[in-house]
Every structure is written in C-alpha cells, then in structure tokens.
C-alpha cells in the first residue's frame, strides 16, 4: 500500500477544500508514492510521536493538528516544529494532517463529541457557503436516464438527507454540424431540431472533475453543451460545530459533572448557571468561542468547546452555559475517528494508535 492510498481514503471522508483558509491540512512531509510500513495515529505530531513512529516501524504519522501552519524560513532545530521537521525528514517519516477539513464535515470531530453525549437530531451549527455548484446540461430524451445515472454515481444530486435529486425540463435544441463532424443525430451542414431534456444537478465543489468526466463519458453528443455555476447556498452537511438534543433533560450541575467525566478532563471552566434544565447542546472541538452567538441563536442551553478567553465568558450573558473542557480534551477522540476511517476501508490493515499523550496543558 502506498501513502497516497491512505490519503485518498482520508480525503474522501474529509476533502481538503473543506479546510479553513488559514489551515495547512494534507501531506506536510514525505512522498505520497512511498510504500507504507505502518501508520501511527495521533492528535499532534510532536517530536516524541516521531520517535514513537521510528521505534514502532511506522513511516506515516496521521495527525489532527498540522505541525506546520505557516512557512518555515529556517530549519535549524531551534523550535519544536523545526526539530520535528528535521527528524521526520531524516528518518523518512511522512506526516499528514486532517484538521479543519475533518472538523467541518458533519461526521467528523464534532460528531465524535456528540457521540460521547448521545446527542440526537443533530445539525451543523454554522454551515459553510460557496462549496456547492450546479451543473446544467442538455440531453436527448432517449439518453437522459443514462446520463443522470452516471452523474448520480459520480456523486451529484445530494441535498441534505436526500440523494438522486435532479430537475428535468423538456425543450427543443438546435445545432448544425460543420464539415467533418459526426453528429449523434442529424446531418452535417443542416440545422437539426432535437427534443432534449435540460438536466440540473447539484454537487460539492471538490467533485467537479469527477462529475464532468462522468458527463462527457455518458453523454451521446460529440460536443456536449453544459454550464457549471457556483452557488451561494449554505451547505448543510459541512461547517463549524454541531447542535443536538440530549435524550432527556439534565440538571445543569449534573450535566457539567457528567461532561467532565465523559471527556476525562481535569477541569471544566463554566459560566454562572441559569437554574434551567439542559436539553439542547451545542458543541465545537478545539477553539470554538467564535460560534457562541450561533449557539445562543440556535436555542442551546449549553455550549461545550475550548479556549475561551476571560472576557468571552461574559458574552454568555445568562443566555447559555459555556462549558470550556480544554482543547485537547475536546479533540482527543479524533484518533479513534482516524482508526475507524482507515479500518473501515482497509479491513486487513491495522494502524497503530499513539501512546503519547500530547496535551501540553496539565492540571493540579
């Protein structure tokens, strides 16, 4: 197995175009054409983790956090990032990161958190826009089902929980082939009228190449007429945070104590209690203060995330209970998610989970 095969599986689950603009997800060190000896899964690709990969015979480390966020102007070992780079390159260790792209998919990091709480009726808290396109094409009536099926197979036609979505409008197309053409219908040099179906399907941007290949391969015309339009629609399956409901309401303090245990955290920082049961819960892995207003607007009783600053706690304003459980604690189950993704695809392959606790924060 080559590293690129691992990458393909991870990126089918969490496409790179879904990452935030500041992020650096993807293959950071190494060559995608290398044969894989084994894979080590971790939250952070620290120097200790690289040592562990060497000791356990792994030449690929899959991490949640990219070890390199910005450009490195010098690599001389003066920082932990530079030391990781030197050691990984010296020992032919590839490092791959799936970060905000894995955060932003509905079944990603936030879903792991929601699973820990048994949340039901989940939806993305802040869906992203600009990630959808629409294809318009014109197909002879007798061939439209073949083309539609090819587009669906390529991944088009998904809207929320519905698949195989398309719109079809009957009309009449005209064309005249020049000398040397071989039209599917009609005669070169003569204007032809053909009963056609205008077929419309929606698709995520990262599938555009695959969708167009499917269109051109299945369409009977020598020259295929089509339009691709970028949509501003919010993509309900992709975005930041999740909101859902507990099976049963819980007392606020009981809820916070339960959350502390579920996420194995040494400390939960929280805002004043409101004296109301907790039923609807919003959450976001990692630094999630930017979603507080969204959580309030969604009617959440509690918001679980991390890295809130002192003054940001005031923004709860008795409208919601903030529970800051710690950055590492909110994302620690990402290793389990990586393991599930890879073993689900490669049934006879067993990636290794790092034994290094990379959390730089300690509690007394």
Give Rg in angstroms.
25 Å
* Unreliable spans: none
Helix content: 25-40%
Number of domains: 3
CATH domain class name of the largest domain: Alpha Beta
> So, CATH architecture of the largest domain?
3-Layer(aba) Sandwich
Distance between the amino and carboxyl termini: 45 Å
> For the largest beta sheet, what order do the strands appear in spatially?
5-10-12-13-14-11
Described by strand count, sense and barrel closure, the largest sheet is: 6 strands, mixed
Total count of helical runs of at least 4 residues: 12
Can you describe this structure?
- It is globular and about 85 Å long.
- It has helices at 3-13, 47-55, 80-90, 100-104, 109-117, 144-154, 208-218, 252-262, 292-297, 310-314, 327-331, 334-345, and strands spanning 26-29, 39-44, 60-65, 94-97, 120-129, 132-140, 167-175, 192-204, 226-231, 234-250, 269-270, 278-287, 302-306, 321-324, 352-353.
- The strands form three sheets. A six-stranded mixed sheet has the order 5-10-12-13-14-11.
- Helix 6 packs antiparallel against helix 7.
- It is α/β, with parallel strands linked by helices.
- The chain starts with a helix and ends in an 11-residue tail after the last strand.
- The protein contains twelve helices and 15 strands.
- Helices cover 29% and strands 29% of the residues.
- The protein has three domains: 3-98 and 333-353, NIF3 (NGG1p interacting factor 3)-like (Udp-n-acetylmuramoylalanyl-d-glutamate--2,6- Diaminopimelate Ligase, Chain: A, domain 1, 3-Layer(aba) Sandwich), CATH 3.40.1390; 105-127 and 239-325, NIF3 (NGG1p interacting factor 3)-like (Udp-n-acetylmuramoylalanyl-d-glutamate--2,6- Diaminopimelate Ligase, Chain: A, domain 1), CATH 3.40.1390.30; 131-231, 2-Layer Sandwich (Alpha-Beta Plaits).
- Homohexamer.
- It comes from Chitinophaga flava.
- One of its GO terms (cellular component) is cytoplasm.
- A divalent metal cation 1 binds at residues 65, 103, 327, 331.
- Keywords: Metal-binding.
